[in-house]
Each structure stands twice: as structure tokens, then as C-alpha cells.
Amino acid sequence: MIDFKRLQFLSNKVKANTANQQEKDEYMLILYQNRSITKSQYEKYIKDKNNSENINAAITIGGILLLGYLLDKLINTNSKK
């Protein structure tokens, strides 16, 4: 199960370019373990951690994942009323 609060925290830091290397690595690992990025994408990141293309793609993917989580919460909250 994903810790969405941690994912959001890391996503915000990565987007703002304030994440340190350990935080970026954790962010990418969360996405990989959740199967939100492929093994190939994760390995590309590991080989070239300074490639902004890899990070930018991960930011987009993480954003979509967070959006899905928030929509699920909203739908479940509204359906319980």
C-alpha cells in the first residue's frame, strides 16, 4: 500500500527542485514498487539520476497517481452520504 502523504510530500519537493538525492531516489522507488513506472524507466533513472527527462516523467506519473487517489477519496466520501 502506498503512503500517499509521503508520496505527495516527495512529489512536491521533487517538483519544487528542493528534494535531495535520497528523496528523489525514494520517490522513484515508490513509483516503481507501485508499478507506476516500468523496470526500464526505473533502471534508466538509476543509471542517470541527473537526467531531468526521467524526473519530469516521474513527476507527471506521480501527479496522476495522486489525482487518482484524491478522486477515489472524493467518490467514496460522497457515496457514503
Structure overview:
This protein has about 80 residues and is an all-alpha fold. About 75% of the residues lie in helices and about 0% in strands. It has 4 helices and no strands. Helix 1 (about 5-15) crosses helix 2, helix 1 (about 5-15) runs antiparallel to helix 4 and helix 2 runs antiparallel to helix 3.
Low-confidence stretches: none
Helix content: over 70%
How many strands in all? 0
Q: How would you classify the quaternary structure?
A: single chain
Q: Please indicate the percent range of residues in DSSP E strands (runs of 2 or more).
A: under 5%
Q: What value does the Rg take, in angstroms? A: 14 Å
Mind describing the biggest β-sheet? none
Rounded mean pLDDT is 90
By DSSP (H or I, 4+ residues per run), the number of helices equals 4
How far apart the termini lie comes to 26 Å
Shape: elongated
